[in-house]
Amino acid sequence: MRAVLATDLSDAIETAIESRTCLECLQRYGIDEIDLVTVTSPNVTAGMPGSDIGGRTKRGLERQRGKLEAEGFGVRTHVMRGTPHRRINGLAERIDADLLIVGSRGQSPLEQRFIGGTARNVARTAARPLLVQRILEHGEEDHEVAAEHLFQRILYATDFSENAERAFEQFDHLETAAQEVTLLHVAPPGRRANGDPDAVSDAEARLGELADQLEERGIETRVVVREGAAVEEILAAEQQFQPTSVLMGSRGRSRMRRLLLGSVSEEVTARADCNVLLVPPAGSR
Question: Domain UspA spans what residues (predicted)?
C-alpha cells in the first residue's frame, strides 16, 4: 500500500519521521511505499541570487527519505510549487494513494490547540483516507508526537450514515494495529424525554453488532452511547478513554455538496488531543 506524506521539512515533521514506533504502526496498517512531498510557494524563486532554497529543500527531503528507507519503506520524493492542499491531493490522486498523512502542530492546553491551514484544507478536500497526525509543540525546537502508537486505541464515532459505515471498513487495515476500540454514537439530546425511549437501545444494539465483528478479529471493544452535542460528546469520550486516534467519516448525513468536511468532523479534527483518521465519502474520488 502507498501513502503520501506531506512535509514542510520542519523540526515538527522531522520528529514524526524519526519515531520508529509511528513508522511501525504505518507498516502494520499496510503501508510499504511512501511518496514524500513538499510544496513551495509559487512566489519563491529557487534561483534568486544568494538563495539556496532549492538546495536546502533537496537536502531536507533526502535526509527524511534516508530515515524512511532505513525503516524499510520504498520512498519517492516530490518538490512541487503551488497551493499545498491542491498539490498534495493531486499527487494522491495521480499515484492512487491508499492514505494521506499530514502533520498538525498544536499547543497545550486544549483550548489553545489548532489545526494548521494546510491540514485543514487537505481534510476539507481529500478524496482519500487522511491521517492527521498530532504533533505537540513545547517551544520552537521542542516537539513530540501526541501518540506514537498511532492506532493502538481507536475511538470510532458513528452516526450510522453511509460514510460512517465506510470509515468502519478501515478496520480491514487496522486489524493488526488496533488493540482496543471504543464504538461511540452520540444521540441528539432529550431523545428519551421526547417520547423516543428506544432510540438509545437501538443505537446500542447496532454498535453491538459492530463490536461482535471486531471481537471476532481479537480486538477488545466497548460500546458507548451518549446524548448531547456531537462534537462535545466525542471530545469528552476522547478525554475519558484516551484513544491514540479518532476514526470517523469526513461527512455525515448532510447532503450539502460543498461541505466536504462536515462541521462535526472538522471541529473534532481541530480540537482533539490525539490523531484523527478521516474517511471521505465513496463518491468523492
Answer: 4-132, 151-280
Average pLDDT value for residue range 154-171: 94
The domains spanning 2-145 and 153-246 adopt the same CATH topology? yes
For the chain, the domains span: 2-145, 153-246
H/E segment holding residue 100: strand 99-106
Q: Are 130 and 100 in contact (CB under 8 A)?
A: yes
Fold entry, domain 153-246: Rossmann fold (3.40.50)
Please enumerate in sequence order all residues whose Cβ is within 8 A of that of 2, keeping only pairs 6 or more positions apart, or say none. Answer: 31, 32, 33, 34, 35, 95, 96, 97, 98, 99
Three-state DSSP class for residue 111:
helix
C-alpha cell at 53: 532554497
235 within 8 A of 271, measured Cβ to Cβ: yes
The alpha carbon of residue 248 and the mean position of all alpha carbons in its chain are separated, in whole angstroms, by 9
Average confidence score pLDDT of the chain: 82
pLDDT of residue 267: 85
2-145: CATH class: alpha beta
Tell me the range of 11-15, 107-111, 266-270 where mean pLDDT is highest. Answer: 266-270
Residue 239: how many other CB atoms lie within 10 Å: 10
List residues bridging with 277 in a β-sheet. 131, 247
